[in-house]
Amino acid sequence: MDQTCMLRLLQMSLTGGAAILVILAIRLFLNKFPRRYLYLLWLIPFFKLLVPLSIPSPFSLFPLTPGHGAGMSANAGALPALNTGLPAIDLPVNLILTKTADAVSSPLSHALSFMELIWVLGILSFLGIHLGRYLHLKKQLADSIPGGEGIYYSDHLSTPLVTGFFHPRIFLPTFFLETESVREKEFVLAHERAHLKRFDPFFKLLAFSGLAIHWFNPLVWAAFYLFCRDMEMACDEHVIASLGEESKKAYSLALLRFEERRSGLFLPLAFGESHTKSRIKNILNYKKPAFWMTLIAVIVLIFSAFFLLTVPQGADGSGNSAVSIGIIGGADGPTSIFLAGKTGNDTASRAEELDMDLIKKQPYGMAVELDYVSAEKISLHGSFGYLVFNLIPHGTMEPSAALKYAVSLSEAGEIFMQGDQYTEIIAGDGGAMIIPDAYNPAVKNQKGFLYEEESGTIAELPELSEDLFKTLLDSNTALADAPLSTEYAEELQSAIQARASGQCLYGPVRLPEPDANVYGFLAADGENLEDIWYGIWYPDSGMIHRIPLFR
Question: What is the pTM assigned to this prediction?
Answer without folding.
Answer: 0.57
